[in-house]
Amino acid sequence: MMQLLIVDDEQIERDGMKAILQKSFPSLLINEARNGKMAIEKAKVLKPNLILMDIKMPGINGLEAMETIMQDSPDTKFIMVTAYDTFDYMRKAITLGASDYLLKPSKAVDIIEIVGKVLKEIVQEQKAKAESELQKIVFQKTRSIIETDLVTQLLFEHVHEVNRTILMDILDIDMEQEVFVMNVLMPESSEQLYTLVKEKTQESGYCLVGAWSGNQLPIIVCRNHRVSFRSQAIALARKILSVTNQKEEMGWFIGIGNVYPALDQARQSYQESLVAVTDYLSPGKYRFYAEIETIEEALFDQRLNQLKKQLPDYVKLGQWEEIRNEIIHLIHFFEQKGASLVYSQQRMLEVLWLISRVLQDLRIETKSPLYAFQTMDYRQLRTETNLLLEQLHTSHVQHYHQLEADTVQQIKQYITEHSHEEISLEAIGREIGLSPIYISKLFKEKMGINYIDFLTECRIEKAKKLMQDPKRSIKEIAIEVGYHEPNYFSKVFKKIVHVSPKEYQNAILGK
Questions:
Q1: Which residues form the Response regulatory domain (predicted)?
Q2: Which of 162, 210, 270, 498 has a 20 to 30 Å separation from 333 between CA atoms?
Q3: Domain limits at 428?
């Protein structure tokens, strides 16, 4: 509802103006003030949309009151009312921002026209402001999606439809700037907590927040050179942890990677943050990767990188026994070389995370691997690693069991719908997108019969239904279900049903 304030030191003028306006604008909420001082006080409380301000009043005049009110309420519109038709008054009123003016005495039609015009302007401005606010909200949501997409491309080397260079241009981000990655372990999350963490990171300077996945939230942080790296990281870690209370903070932990000179090297810092978050049951709520002990790191990296190159192919081919053997050999190698258990567990987590990431790329849902505690010896490390690996393996098996079941159902549906046609394994393969050999093998394993036998059954069942119509001949039915030779159809029918087609039709028709 529109708020209007009439300011005039003469009661009769206020009453007359109010009567005219109430009759023409019944929805208008009208208040009054008898001088400039009262107008200022009421405007602070009411925040009126429009003020009809008399210029000549004792004490604070209308121009002075208008100037004061506009400092507190710049969106308020003013129509100046005066008996003084002088250029100086009008020029000052317009300079201060008055929308229009009325001369005393004014005709009712003039008052209605000018007030109506200004009220219309207010409505249009409010609508434009609302649309602008909506656009800001939409932009912020779009920006959040773009930001998440960019983090995914930078940290996981995904190739998306929109190139990361375009995304950085939209977000106005410079590639050549120092960054580091913080990985926030959030055991339980919600949209509210996720939003709070984003707000805290954005308060601390420019950060790119990724998607919450597998209990972990990656954040790319731009370096603030006014403070040290360590000070910046610790301050941000404490801000993030402040969104939880003491009870909820259990299980929260932040791994912090090293600083790198450019945004396209953020992935290395992310890998380090993953390693740093491994020992999340240790004292404190955050850990720097640089604090982790690294013995003979070059030698270990060489062996580890060799395995990392092989793992994606092993996972895609489903060679889980090879994966298990390679991981056990790697643990044995660390043990022989005297690496600490903390270090070995951290590096094994990198391997498990890589397997998890490959599965996610294959659209296989799986829980991100995470050790429940720091292992006490290498025997325990092998056992716990094997358990986590088995969880990943189970996700892979369940996915493909479901995929095979869906594929068999697709094949059955295709054969049923096209049984009257000249159908072949090659035709089914083109439709389903699989090789004919694989289809034949899968169908036999899952159904217990080959696809030709299933096709024949479909045709015979369809023929049985058609035989319920006495007007259809056996020859017509044979052709309709996919047999061009009626004699061959009769032979196949009798072999399966144990009576001839004519005998079967006579029986069901009661002949």
A1: 3-119
A2: 270
A3: 418-508
